[in-house]
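Example record

Each entry pairs one chain with its bound ligand, alpha-D-glucopyranuronic acid.
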Amino acid sequence: MGRATVGCLVSLVMASGVAWSGEPNFDEARVGTYTLPDPIAGPDGAAAKSVEAWRAVARPHQLAVLEENVFGRRLTSAPVAVVGAVERADVMLPGDVRARRLQARLRLGTGDAAPITEVLLFLPHDGREPVPVLLGLNFLGNQAEYPDPGIWLPPSWLPNDEAAGIDQHLATEASRGWLAHRWPVPAMLKRGYGMATAYCGDVFPDRPPERDAAAAQPSADAPGAMAAWAWQLSRILDWLVTLPEVRKDAVAVVGFSRLGKAALWAGAGDERFAAVVSMESGCGGAALSRRDYGESIAAITSRFPHWFCPRFASFAGREADLPCDQHCLLALVAPRPLYVASAVEDRWSDPRGEFLACVAAEPAWRLHGLEGIATSDAPPTDTPVGRTVGYHVRAGRHELLAYDWQRCADFLDRALLGRMPPTADDHGAFHPLQAPLPVQPPAGAVVLVEADGGVAGGAGEGSGADRPAFVSMGGGAIDWKVRDGGLEVEASGRRSNHVVSTVTFRDADIHAEFATSPEASGNSGLYLHGLYELQIFDSVASRPPQMQDEGALYRFAPPLVNAALPTGAWQVYDVRFIAPRRDAAGAITRPGHLTAWLNGKLVQDAIEFAEPRSPYTPYKHGVTDFMRGVEKRILETGAGPLVLQDHGSRVRFRNVWIRPLDGAAVSP
Ligand code: GCU
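Structure tokens for the complex follow.
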């Protein structure tokens, strides 16, 4: 380590924060009324009447007000030098995405005290370069963002995180890919975007003592972590725009949570960022401070005194005296595209306050003849709005999910790149409920295994209306039994005593709860159409997880993260399966894709697949005439069964259901 950080460089010390003991308000009725300052006003309080006046007077004024009262002085630019060589490697990502991985150490400034940041950049490598790039900082080091053993482990101080496998404040092998569910590289590359990231702590470790580095009396507008992180983002941009593979006019700055606040501040101050994206940035980010809802200035400045300038804390409890509010920050992005994402359950970030800030920032876009968010009605959940300023509030809690990135890319496709987003066939958001178990089946679901392990329609042989939920590989009665609250695999020596659902489906959401058993490493699987296997396997300790581990789409993609639980614990898979489409001759005309969640973590993100690759499918290994018939019907109709796999281990299943997404499902 031994690197200087910007925290030291700016000699940052802050007055101790306001002790905060208040209860946050989560009651909309108690928000009260407030008046917002004009986001396009100059020092005389009058709104700019022309783009020229805004640019010459109002914009610099608004920036200065935010510097003085919220973020502190902006740090001055510094020369950026690559230390050593830029590493370029061609890599194949899950879903057969050809990519180029770049890594560079950048010295930000001159002299020994200059901080060094390591930048990781994935680019689509399919002849589309130069490409637009989404740049964002990360919380736990580049290695945690993606499970690629070639990613450098940072030497910087990291916050300890037991679950992520980080102790001693240093990156570990175990932490590789821990946050990959927040950074869907293959999916974004497939959409033509490059993905760049760096660890925020390279320049300003996220810890309050950072403020104790020097003087006891910092100036009221002394910069904090947000200013340092915004500066880091601009310096990385200095380097990105030198790369032939990167479209200089299409680098968007993106950030989640505290790093969303930093992204907004970076984008506001540095107009080279072609678009700005805030994901659940909340207080001090996209949410209005004057709305007394969720996190308050008192709360944030007492818990994170090192993030903002000291003066910000002085507005705790007297928000009406602030000469700005967070809509003024958003307005500084104009006329460029701005996207703001919230989550319904993230009340701490005040989703409504984030939406209302977009509405209140609109004059800045209108001044430019653009429409801004163009509505003052908060949209329903999972329904993005706005073309120049976009916004969505998705179902779920404070997280950064594939859904957020996909909707952000839809927005940027139009607003930044002037192209239509691909037609979505993912049937809206997919972030299923995975707790508490057993999960209640939704409307329209066909239950195959009940919550107590009982089998719908019984386990006996039958036909017509009596037909049970599953038949054996021979098409007869299954011999699996209900034990300990689950339908237990009757393990066979040949490992081919699978059970085959009698319901067939084409595109569907599939939910399955299961518990592994120690023999044969708890091996089993969900065979979708009997062709594509989502692995069930005892693999808690496998880091980074491999192709045979739980969460893998066997022979296509290892899981993004290890989300496996120990032997015997009830676990849960939710899968969105979009089947391949075939022509009359049976050739695939459009690959299938699937997204899968395992125990609350995204393990497969829109992974593409075409012809099956496993030699063990029930149409090869242990095949019967009955299964040959099933395979033939898949080729003819595109619809197939769910097969629960016998792989020599007495794995148990319960609460297994299928929710067809199209009209191609067939019930016996
Ligand atoms: C805390 C903090 C938020 C911040 C978040 C995060 O919840 O109060 O302001 O956005 O951490 O960065 O995860």
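The longest strand covers residues 80-93.
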